[in-house]
Structure formats: C-alpha cells, structure tokens
Design goal:
Length: 560
C-alpha cells in the first residue's frame, strides 16, 4: 500500500486537517489549491460519496453527470458570466469561442430541464458528483479552500413555489441525515444567497476553530444565522430633545467615531457615513456610529454586482470633505440607511466640511433616505431576535448549502412547461450542494487528537488494522493472517500491517491514519492464546481469545 506517512508536521500546514491529512499520507499538494488524493483519501472520499448518494436516492433524486467545461452562452444568458468575476476560470477554444470551467451547474442543469414539457413530469430531483473549479485568491486550509474540488450538487424542478418549499424541506432532511451519518455536528443557519440569487437559503455549519465563517447562535432557543444574515433585538435607543434644525459646530482634528464622543456625542447617537460605489454609482451608506457594516448585507439589499469603498479623492470631489467629516444632510447622492437609524432624532453627523459636524439631526426630517435595510453586523452579547437571550458568535466551516432559486435560471435558459391550465410557465428551481473533500477535512477537524486522525467507522478508509508485532515470526504472522482472512471473508474492511518495521512504528501509523480498531498479534499473546484489541477513539485495549478476535471486533463494529 502507498501510504507515505511523515514523522513530523509539515511546515506549510495551517489547519489541523491540513496537517494531519498530509502527515498521515492521505494527500499531497501539487500547487496552491490543488491536491492529489492518495489511496487512503480515495477510500474515505468513496465512503462519503456513498452516504450522500444513499440519502439523495432516498428522496427520489436521480444521478447524472454533466460536463465540467461550459460554453459561455448559458452563463451569459443568466447574467453570471460577468457577475462571477475573477473566480471563474475562463478559456477560449481553438476557434476563439469563450468557455469556462464550471464553478457550479445551475445554468447547465437548466438547459437539460428544457427537455421537460409538462407539469405532469414534475417534480424532478437531479444530482451529480462533479469536479468544480474556482480561482480562489487565497487557497488555504488544505482541502477546505481549494481551486479544484468535488461537489455533490443537486437541483429540484417544481411547478410552483409550494413544490419548491416541499423539495427544499426534503433536502433539508436529507442533509441532516447525511451529516449525522458522517458524525459531523451541523448547525442549520439562515444564510445569504450571494451570487446564486433566489428567495432564501440555509447553510449547514460545522463549528470549528479554523472555520472562516462566523455563525451567530442562541443556545437558548436554537436561532442560528451566518453573520452575513444575522439580526438581533436591539434595545430602544434614547434620543435627546432635538433642535429645530441641524446646528453646525467646530470639531478640529476629529476623524473617528471615538474622537467625536468628546463632544457629548455617544456612539449610539452618531450617524456613521460610508461612501461606496455600487455598480459605479456613488452611494452613501448610513449606520449608527457604534455599529459596523456587513458588506454582504449591502450587496443583498442593493443587488449590486460591483461594490467597493470609494477612494478619498472620489469622496472629496462629490462631498467637499474628507472621511471623518461626512454626512448625508442636504446631499443629492443616493442614500441607503440601516434600520437602526429609522425614526432617530437629535443625532450627530459630519457637515461635509472638514473639521465640522452637525448636532440635532432628525433622520426623517433632515436626510432623504432612498432605501432602508438591515446593514449592520451583529455582535456577541446582543439579544436574540427570537428569545431575547444573549447571542454567541462561533467560528464554523460551511459543509452544505441549500438554496431556493425560484425561476431565475428557468426564465434565462427557457426551461418552461405547460401548467394545469395549458399555459407555458417557467420551472421553479432549487439548488443543493455539499463539498466532498471539504466534508473530509471537516471530519478530521472534529475528530482528531494528539496522535492523529480518529475517523468515524462510517467513513474510515479501513475499519480494522491487524498488526503483526513481529513480522519475522512465522507463527505470529500466520495467526495474524488468520484473523485478517476471517474479517475479510466476513465483509469487514480490513488491512494487515506485515511490514518489517518495529511494532511501535506500526502502532504509530495506525493511530496517525485513524483506523478505528487495531488487533495486535505478538509472541507473548500467541503463547497465551490471546490478541489485543485497541479502540482508536478511546485508546482502550483489552485481551481477547485469539480464535474469537475477529468475532469480537465484528461485534464492536455492529454496535458502532
């Protein structure tokens, strides 16, 4: 077997899963974001895929396999050829036609769905296991953020929104079962739909210290949302008596929210003015002074494809002042404001004159707000919107995401059917994804110790390792081979370590690679008629009769 384990941690590895999958001989890096899966990893990957496949089949989904190389035309029709930006790998064929390596397959499945022609053929559930490509600017974490990976992506096709809701719930249940079988803690969270679009989505998040997402969670009631979507129940803010009109006052050297507090202007009575270019349009974004903007919320609220903070020179040309003295009073630019400012009086904001601010601002009276939206980022300790108890914020790995797409892609690609009244209507779609290698990494993140990986039985590359303590002893080797053969004949996934290595080296490799059960046969045990059975997860070892070792481990596997 090719399982090139390493004695020391690789210097380039950051996350525990990255370190252990390299050290235990599961993967090797080709270049940034691209990994070769070695024999042990391929076995784990196959087990994860089989669990996912079983649960997809159980809800009536049918497996397909669509191309990984896509012509540009369907992506242009959906509007995502430009929207995807630099993360999409693009190329031209020898005739100069534009193509892309598939990041996802909504458009391509929608083209297949044009074969449907009647509501009588719906609902349909289709899925695949296919390689996806994303030009990640910063691939990291081993298999957690790569540029080439396997995705199980599924798509539902229904006649109406009620059908979509039913499909969505079916996938929600299937995902819950999948992650339970993978022994992954999975927290369903409200989430942003991002470039996928649609009416709503749910992420399945696995709490982990190395996670790149933040989840806002209430242990009291179970509320959970990605920080890009989370809300909280803010206590009502107290306003001052107000003024008949905003009043200017000098603020030399004031550049920040904290600086302005010296003028009897607490953060919750300040209006923070940010300037963004949204699809090329200079826009003022207003928040309470003690609140932070979540940019994804701004994207979701405006639908902007291009978003960036304005440069100081652009701001000065438009408003006549530099950041630190900005405000929206009397400004003709578009204004989008956070809901926490609605109805506020006697507020402080910049006067659009350097080193000068306004007091006594009444938001409704003095500022023309074009759009109100939830823009602020929730912080730990704020009251839960459901139960009022303090919210927690935890790091997590996204291990699954399900979307209610609606009819966006069907309209763009012409996927229509006849409804019960004989009218042609667009099909209503859902999209449902699980990253296979990411799931593998997440399992390692949540199942490891100081000695290596601790695979759950359901996904382990082998369930049992039989170790010959002294490979040069023919009697010991024969006894171990007998146990190995008995387990293999009983359908157990078993490997035997008959290398000419010291027993300690073999034990270390079995622990490092995470095989759930180890049976050790040695001279001393052979003389006693016993073998040792060690449970990887607990480290517990017990002696069992040699001729009953295989049956004993089968019992342990059955209970696991």
């Amino acid at each position: 077997m090719f399982a090139p384990t390493l004695r020391d941690d690789p210097a380039e590895a950051d996350a525990p899963s990255h370190r252990l999958l390299l050290r235990a001989g599961y993967v090797r890096q080709l270049t940034a974001g691209h990994y070769s899966l070695l024999p042990l990893a391929v076995r784990v990957r196959a087990r994860i895929i089989e669990i996912v496949r079983q649960e997809m089949d159980a809800i009536g989904a049918q497996e397909m396999l669509l191309p990984a190389l896509h012509p540009a035309e369907p992506w242009r029709r959906s509007g995502r050829w430009e929207l995807m930006g630099q993360e999409m790998f693009r190329l031209q064929d020898r005739r100069g036609a534009d193509h892309a390596l598939g990041m996802t397959h909504e458009e391509i499945f929608a083209t297949v769905a044009r074969e449907l022609n009647s509501y009588k053929q719906l609902p349909q559930q289709w899925y695949q296991f296919q390689t996806k490509f994303r030009d990640e600017p910063r691939p990291k974490g081993g298999l957690m953020r790569t540029r080439e990976f396997t995705m199980k992506d599924a798509y539902s096709f229904d006649i109406d929104r009620a059908g979509l809701d039913a499909s969505f719930e079916a996938y929600h249940g299937a995902y819950t079962r999948i992650f339970a079988r993978l022994d992954l803690p999975a927290l369903p969270c409200e989430a942003s739909s991002g470039t996928m679009g649609g009416a709503g989505s749910t992420e399945f998040m696995c709490p982990a210290d190395v996670g790149e997402d933040l989840v806002v969670h209430s242990p009291a009631c179970g509320y959970a949302a990605n920080i890009e979507r989370a809300t909280s129940a803010l206590p009502e803010a107290a306003d001052g008596p107000g003024l008949p009109a905003p009043e200017r006052f000098d603020t030399p050297g004031v550049r920040t929210i904290d600086d302005l507090k010296a003028y009897d202007a607490p953060g919750d009575r300040q209006i923070k003015t940010l300037v963004y270019l949204l699809d090329g349009t200079l826009t003022l974004v207003l928040l309470r002074g003690d609140h932070a903007l979540n940019e994804q919320k701004l994207v979701d609220a405006t639908g902007a494809a291009g978003i960036r903070a304005a440069e100081p020179a652009e701001i000065q040309r438009a408003l006549g002042a530099l950041p630190g003295s900005l405000g929206a009073v009397g400004v003709a630019l578009p204004v989008i404001a956070d809901e926490a400012l609605r109805g506020r009086r006697d507020m402080f904001t910049g006067a659009n004159i350097d080193d000068m601010h306004l007091r006594g601002v009444d938001v409704a009276r003095d500022i023309t707000v074009g759009t109100w939206a939830d823009l602020r980022e929730v912080t730990a300790g704020e009251p839960c919107p459901r139960c009022g108890e303090p919210l927690e914020i935890v790091r997590a790995i996204e291990i699954g995401h399900i979307f209610k797409l609606g009819d966006r892609y069907a309209r763009a690609l012409g996927a229509e059917v006849l409804d019960t009244g004989g009218r042609r209507v667009p099909i209503v779609m859902g999209s449902y994804g699980i990253g296979i290698e990411r799931a593998m990494a997440a399992i390692v993140e949540t199942h490891h110790d100081e000695r290596g990986i601790v695979w759950p039985v359901a996904v382990a590359p082998f369930q049992v390792a039989v170790v010959i303590a002294q490979s040069d002893d023919a009697d010991v080797a024969a006894a171990a081979e007998g146990i190995y053969t008995a387990l293999r004949d009983a359908g157990v996934d078993v490997v035997i370590d008959d290398r000419a290595e010291r027993a300690g080296v073999k034990f270390r490799d079995v622990e490092l690679t995470g095989i759930p059960y180890r049976i050790t046969v040695g001279r001393r045990g052979l003389a006693e008629g016993t073998a040792e059975v060690t449970v990887r997860a607990t480290g517990d070892t017990e002696k069992v009769p040699l001729d009953g070792a295989a049956a004993h481990v089968r019992t342990l596997l059955a209970s696991a």
